[in-house]
Amino acid sequence: MFNTNKIKIFYTLFVFIALAAFDNIVIGLFPPLFGSIARDLNVDISALGFVSALNIFITSVSSIGWGYLAGKFNRRILIMTGTFFWSVSVFLTSISNSYIQILIFQLFTGIGLGCIGSIGFSILTDCIPQKSRGVLLSLWGMSQGFGGIAGALMASLIAPNTNWRKPFEIVSIIGFFLMFLYIFVKEPSMGEAEPELKELVEKGHDYDYDIKLGHLREIILKPSNILLFFQAFFMNIAIGTLIWLPTLYISKIQDQGYNSHISIVAAGYLYALFQVGGLTSSWFGHMGDKIEQKSYRGRALLTSFFVFFTVPFYILMFITPMNNLRLSQGNNAYIIFIDLIKQIVINPWITIIFILSVFASAAQSANTPNWLALITNVNLPEHRAAAFSIANLATGIGRTIGNAGVGFMLGILSLKFTETNKYIITLIVFQLFLIPSGFCYLKMAKANAKDIRRVKMTLKRRGNAT
After folding, report:
1. How far apart are CA 56 and CA 60, in angstroms?
2. How far is 38 from 43, CA to CA, in rounded Å?
3. Neighbour count for residue 179 (Cβ, 10 Å)
4. What pLDDT was estimated at residue 23?
5. CA distance 377 to 143
6. Domain residues for 333?
7. What CATH number corresponds to the domain at position 183?
8. What stretches of 42-74 show up as alpha helix (H) in DSSP?
9. How many DSSP H helices and E strands does the chain contain?
10. What predicted TM-score, i.e. pTM, was given to this entire model?
11. Is the pLDDT of residue 349 over 80?
12. pLDDT above 50 (res 87)
């Protein structure tokens, strides 16, 4: 006999995990298209970097408003509203005829996209049992990461055969139709997955604690949250700059004598292939779940180790050249992909870059599931969407600084270095921000233990109050 409730929960998890990719698909579309858009609209490429940074920043700021609303109103209706808003804005981007129009429509896109992370996080954490949070949240986080890759691939494969507008059109239309999937989503009751509230839920009672405006100060000043915010800020200064990797690959491929079309297509494939280590995210989330059952400090300590190890792998990957790259001179995207797979096997330079990228993206992937699990576990159910949104603002500020900083630094380095070297130097400098990010995890371990115990005690007291 089918358990319809479980089917609805699985469907809800599937929808939010799948659609979480879309905010990063929109972000990932931009960098491979910078050159094409700049030529079409007759603007400097660095100006488009500013648009991308603004989109990220506005997405993060708006998520605070969406997160606060999620603690008070029907979350399914809110996320459908936000999805409609960003879908329309992305379509308007595709028909823009000036830099100002793109800037305005991407600003509105960011407002809509802010709903996906904060409201999605709130609903998922009420669906996912505590013992499996790291694993299942890793899928949600992974879908966002691979959304960025999908965006870069779409831009690289579609735009050379059409124009830069077509990828935005496609994403907007898909986003509009996927919005209707939310109609069948089961919105869980607040705190439904907490073991301390199990008896309360089984008796048919609601967890009727809502967020109040005065709670924001408590959320912001919580010791674990402060360190999670700073960790996200430093992490995303570094990781946010990785959307420039396709541009670095394009430059390296062109150094080998290939034209713009082949370079763009090949760079999109390489960007996807070189992120394959991110598939280990669920395993790291599982490790975090197991360790946290033994010690509330363990998850942060585990993650700090891998954050530190991300740095040398990325730096070595950046500086390794793509010597002796052999690609077919035709424009067939499938043949280019097959050529790249062969190069990974037979060209030692490409093999080395691939191995380094696997280790780098794998070590980096430990962050997302464990960070998401920690910000869930140290906050009360009604505070989680707001806490995530504030952290998302720190993330957005970090990414904005990283992207704006890349554009600024590239401008300076252009005076003395070649196209490829200026990208390598810039990306290396920004990866160094992972070091303070790792130290934040070391520092927060003790605070995590106290805050998780405090949340559990509060929930147990509320669960027994009926």
Report:
1. 6
2. 5
3. 18
4. 66
5. 21
6. 12-190+214-463
7. 1.20.1250.20
8. 45-70
9. 20, 0
10. 0.75
11. yes
12. yes
